[in-house]
Write a structure and sequence with these properties.
40% helix, alpha/beta, 371 residues
Length: 371
């Protein structure tokens, strides 16, 4: 499917952008061939690892593929927009307007420049984003309680051990009370990712590291990854909860498995099981990778749900399509039936489409306030 989807922009660029240019045919064929290779990036991923989700070639090459693929897609969008404008003005001019080569060169330069910027934004270790969340009936001891949300790390050849080490250093320097990881730790098998995820064992917070799986864990031997993540010092909340105490005051952090488990052998998400035995008078923070079932969480009395999965939509405009697939939730804060939902843009993102334009990555520090 990916091969066809990304082959279509290449056809648009070939027929409507490259072909009309006043270049030698040899140059046109060279540029078209390079972009054709870029359009089949996911095919090369599958050939390198057996999965479109896990490119197993050097990081500079992964970055190069993403740069060229993003340029191809943006150029196709620009060309379609130009053709639409040309069709609109044709009745006025009496003929289909000729496009000067300089306009096409400008389109190419903008597409390449935006892609370079967007890929750079995607692969960086993100800056800190501070938000405050008011929680009704928050116990006094938890006023000002700070937690760090990491999500969608997608540790891979694009986000390797060096990136993970820097992420851990920045996270620890924040001095939060608790860290949570809301899924999609990796892209790749344990054999391929063992060294890249190893720095996560260095995460430190007074109340520990609580985590849940995302959908990508199910693509790479879910059970093996759950055991390995736990061995790194994280408590995996697989339809379970933890109780954090400050004197006599309590706060519940619950976590569920991912919707990707539905229909498979692994436990499906079960909010009732996650909350079973939790103190009735304690506010609940729910870790759930995908945000689309937030109304159900609100009905269950959850005070705050932390999710990821959407990567914030990655690109302004594209985020509207991503929202449609996630019950309207794509980026930032939402009020859902008296519950606050926070959809994190992601610490990183899937290496198969590493582009951020207007939807930046984030290290999200959440401070709890009594509402």
């Amino acid at each position: 499917m990916f091969h066809l989807i990304f082959g279509l922009p290449w056809l648009v660029v070939l027929l409507r952008f490259i072909q009309p240019l006043p270049w030698l045919w040899s140059v046109k064929l060279l540029v078209a061939g390079l972009l054709l290779v870029a359009s089949q990036y996911h095919l090369f991923n599958k050939l390198s690892s057996g999965s479109v989700f896990s490119p197993e070639f050097p990081r500079p090459l992964v970055i190069g593929f993403n740069l060229l693929m993003a340029t191809l897609i943006l150029l196709a969008v620009f060309q379609i927009a130009l053709d639409v404008v040309s069709v609109v003005v044709t009745p006025i001019l009496g003929h289909f307007p000729a496009v000067p080569p300089e306009l096409r060169y400008a389109m190419g330069a903008v597409a390449l420049g935006l892609s370079a910027y967007g890929v750079a934004q995607a692969v960086r270790v993100p800056p800190v984003k501070n938000i405050e969340v008011a929680i009704r009936n928050l116990p006094p001891a938890f006023e000002g309680y700070r937690l760090l949300q990491l999500t969608d790390l997608h540790i891979s050849r694009l986000f390797p051990a060096s990136w993970t080490r820097e992420l851990v250093q920045r996270s620890n320097a924040l001095g939060v009370d608790l860290m949570v990881v809301t899924g999609d730790f990796i892209d790749g098998s344990l054999q391929d990712r063992r060294a890249d995820v190893a720095p996560l064992a260095g995460l430190r917070a007074p109340d520990g590291i609580l985590a849940i799986p995302g959908n990508h864990e199910y693509y790479f031997d879910y059970q093996t990854w759950m055991q390995h993540d736990a061995s790194l010092g994280m408590r995996m909340l697989l339809n379970d909860h933890a109780v954090i105490q400050r004197g006599g005051d309590k706060l519940v952090v619950a976590g569920v498995t991912d919707l990707a488990a539905l229909g498979g052998p692994s436990p499906a998400p079960d909010l009732a099981a996650a909350l079973e035995g939790a103190p009735q008078d304690a506010p609940v923070i729910l870790l759930e990778h995908q945000p689309r079932l937030a109304p159900r969480s609100a009905e269950a009395g959850v005070a705050l749900q932390l999710s990821g999965h959407t990567h914030g939509g990655m690109v302004v405009g594209l985020d509207r399509l991503v929202a449609r697939a996630n019950n309207g939730f794509v980026s930032g804060r939402y009020e859902v039936g008296g519950m606050t939902l926070y959809v994190n843009n992601g610490t990183a993102l899937w290496p198969g489409f590493a582009l951020r334009l207007g939807r930046p990555s984030e290290l999200t520090v959440i401070t709890l306030r009594k509402g």
